[in-house]
Amino acid sequence: MKVEKTWVRITPPDNIPLCQGRAVMAGGREIAVFNLGNRFLAVGNRCPHRSGPLADGIVSGDTVVCPLHAWRFSLETGKGASSASASSCVETFRTRVEHGVVLLELPVESAVDKELPAVCFEHGEAANWSESSSTAGD
Amino acid sequence: MKKLVVVGNGMAGVACVEQILRHKPKFEITIFGDETHVNYNRIMLSSVLAGEKSPDDIVLNGLDWYQQNDIDLRLGIRIVDVDSAAKTVTGDDGSVTSFDKLLLATGSLPVIPSIEDVKKDGVFVFRNLDDTRALLERSRPGLKAVVIGGGLLGLEAARGLQVQGCQVSVVHLMDTLMERQLDEIGGSYLAAKMNRLGVTVLLGLSTTAILGNGKVEGVQFKGGRSIPADLVVVAAGIRPSVDLARKAGLQIKRAIVVNDYMETSHPDIFAVGECVQHNGVCYGLIAPLLEQGKVLAATITGNKGPTYQGSILASKLKIMGVDVFSAGEINDKVDGSEVIRYEDPSLGIYKRLTLKDNKLTGVIMVGETSDSHRYMEWLRGGTDLAKLRRQLLFPGPGDDGGLDAAQMSDRETVCGCMGVTKGTIIHAIHEKAVNTLAQLKECTRASTGCGSCTPLCQQLLKAVVPEFEEEGKKTLCKCIPLPEDNLRQILRSQQLKSVQEVLEIYGNGIGCEICKPALSYMLDMLWCGDHEEDRSARFINDRVHANIQKDGTFSVVPRIRGGVTSPDELRRIADVADKYKVGMVKITGSQRIDLLGVKKEDLPKIWADLGMPSGQAYTKGVRMVKTCVGTDFCRFGVQDSTAAGIEMERRLENLFTPHKLKMGAVGCPRNCAEATVKDIGLVGQEGSWQVVVGGAAGKKVRKADLLITAETTEQALDAAALIFQYYRENANYLERTYDFVERLGIEKVRKETVYATDAVKHGLRDRLRKSKARSQDAWLEREKPNHPTQFVQIRPLEEVFA
Fold first, then answer.
1. Do B801 and A108 count as a contact with CB atoms less than 8 A apart?
2. Shortest CA gap A18–chain B (Å)
3. B796 and A11: CB-CB below 8 Å?
């Protein structure tokens, strides 16, 4: 089954301070949205290691460092970016800013299983995550 | 044995002697130096001025080297005359020394422009170690310093003085800084960088007079404009020192004329270094002088054969955070030359390559010089770049800037100054059991010149010697590779107040979870709270003033000074625990109460309901003072530890420290509140207090060291305040007091705190007072949040349908 995606209006950009993240519940998911100054990036908020809130992590370039045990993830690709997190990944979501609002692209179907085991994709495939995961959820 | 007399104990002369010693026959060698120092690395004087290196650090040949090689070293003697017929030299002490061969390595002298009153007190040149020492003695924070000359030396002097805290202006005659190495655009990028460091750059100004009555008060320019100055450094260039050569009757044009064999017009008199010209060119930079020395060594020892063919001019500005590299031909108007430019004004990066017939002829780089090695190789080797056209400005994928030691061929030069190839270094490592940088320097001389190849040498050592450990101090992290004590000095002198600024100027512009909190701490401490607070550089605990738990909830520990609370406070705590369904209420090891499992958005409400200040149980800062019941109730107490502890907590609370700081105060040596295993402890005894520091009862158990015995409670609290502020200012981030005290030794700590001069103690108290005055209970942010969404979970503007 092909899952539709839709853009969801989240919050004015000012609500996410520069180089910080904020957690948001949208479409049944907990998502961490980060303000990198020239763009916003969004990933699943829970670290695959011990579910640390990534939105509370320190941003380092285009990566975030989990506040619990310093696992690092690329905010662009969702891939693990430290030796500990190398074989893990987090889901990524496309963002855009329109009429003074940050939007996230979310899968329409809210029943997607959030507890799916982490599966890593090569660069460029991360955006297709929900399509693959919906198959696994069937 | 024939006698060789060397006039000049500088880098070029001594390097040439080092080469001569490798040849046969041997000479009986005498070296005259008019300075009173052994041979040191003149290029590093700017680092001495900047306080990054001590004079001892820059010594190239210690006294033992002269002794081991049977060299008669005569220091502090200036040779004033040469008799080329009688083959003698005469010193300013009247001594006459005969020679068979004479080597003139007289170097150069500073050019003193014709400026009125240039000899006034407070005017310096910057050429040798004594000049540097004099400048260091005179410079003070706040002093107005004017550097005349915007070339390499002038800029390095300016930066050094500025690190010493002076307000520095650089006055340059031309419209472009370093115009002999840079083009106009490069110069403007450089000027912008200097301005950013806080050095004022004044261009196109001709200095006409030094103003002031007796001592310097200002500098006047053509046209009448003047600026105030307490100190002036003249760095307007150098000229070859040729007086002796003239007396010897040598052929001189601008400098002593030498041929390809480094011979002068006299068969037994030779010259090397900045005082010679070869094919009409004088070289003032180290690498060519060493190449000349090699050739001359062969010629002078009768092994004539090697020739000197001139050198590629290359120079590098040695100012941290201001990277400038220039090599080869600077003029891009040469017929048939192509120019390739890259500019990024917001990053301050400028690169310009000049090519002719697909070969690199010149390169200019400002702001980013990591590729300099690659370009030097292309210049030296005359590499055909036809196939590399797409990778001229940026190395191709997988090639990290030509700095990858493994990819270099053995023939490639690692140290351009000393002409040491990778092959030579690898050979030395294998054959001579070299495994430290110091040994490598001694054995091959690599990295003893300008020092820019040091990382590459270390990389090679690391690759070949498994047990190699990088020397020097531990640096903060990869993002900002400086030791923390250097960094503290830099931040203070550069007036840097925000983490991002520091990262951009001295680091990679990005930062990470290690350096960002460390820099945040440093800036807060250095500026006594008057810095630009950047919460994105703080750990989550310091963004929301609570301790993050494994499930992402937080814990709340209100301040209960000295562990003394009241029924009313306890009732409020109980009510809060009920109201917010707190997961666990726990008495902590620090005589406080912990409310665990709190949601982030509940934090401000809980703090308001508690009506108690933050206990800082989440931060690298003052935690608490644990006390015993002291004299009020206890049968044994001899000091009122409860009151003393509460007062100590009140005086130091709300402040950040390099690591968490726990204190204790006990009313008698029975030590019920365990003060002797706290970071700072007060131990009451009959008629006095022992103030102790550096105790630990964590991963490591350590009994605290006695700092001082104080007669009154006030004296004890003052001693505690002194050691507290001293620790704040001198410990590395995440260094507990017990490691800090062990690293420094309690004697040193005592000498610099409780036994320091009144001025020093006053300074510590004063800075602590300032920090304290600007600090506040972090939980007050419940009313005035740092950011509107500091504690709230963002709700989407629209719901997603199911």
1. yes
2. 7
3. yes
CB-based contact B272:B103 (threshold 8 Å): yes
Contact of B5 with B30, CB cutoff 8 Å:
yes
* Confidence tier at A119 by pLDDT (50, 70, 90): low
The model's pLDDT over B784-795, given as tens digits with 9 standing for 90+, comes to 999 999 998 899
pLDDT, one tens digit per residue, over B229-284 is 999 999 998 899 999 999 999 999 999 999 999 999 999 999 999 999 999 998 87
Question: Domain residues of chain B, as ranges?
Answer: 2-110+240-300, 123-236, 329-398, 404-468, 475-529, 620-776
Residue A137: per-residue pLDDT? 32
Cβ–Cβ of B796/A24 closer than 8 Å?
yes
**Nearest chain A residue to B544, by CA:** A56
Separation of alpha carbons B167 and B103, rounded Å: 43
Query: Which pLDDT does position B473 carry in this prediction?
Result: 61
**Token pair listed for B59:** 């010594």
Q: Do the Cβ atoms of B540 and A57 come within 8 Å?
A: yes
CATH class of domain segment(s) B620-776:
alpha beta
CATH 1.10.150 fits B329-398, yes or no: no
> How far is C-alpha B738 from the chain's CA centre?
27
Q: How far is A125 from chain B (nearest CA, A)?
A: 22
Nearest to B602 by CA among B582, B575, B574: B582
Q: Is the pLDDT of residue B401 over 50?
A: no
Residue B518 has pLDDT above 60, yes or no: yes
ipTM of the complex: 0.82
Q: Which CATH number characterizes residue A19's domain?
A: 2.102.10.10
Interface contact A24-B535, CB threshold 8 A: no
Is B517 close to A58, i.e. CB distance below 8 A?
A: yes
Q: Identify all chain A residues contacting B543, using CB atoms and an 8 Å cutoff.
A: 20, 56
State which residue of chain A sits closest to B800, comparing Cα positions: A27
Q: Which residues in chain A touch residue B550, judged by CB atoms under 8 angstroms apart?
A: 50, 68
Q: By the 8 A CB rule, do A31 and A43 touch? A: yes
Calculate mean pLDDT across residues B638-667.
97
Give the predicted TM-score (pTM) of the model: 0.62
**Separation in Å, CA of A21 to nearest CA in chain B:** 9
Distance CA B195, CA B169 (A): 9
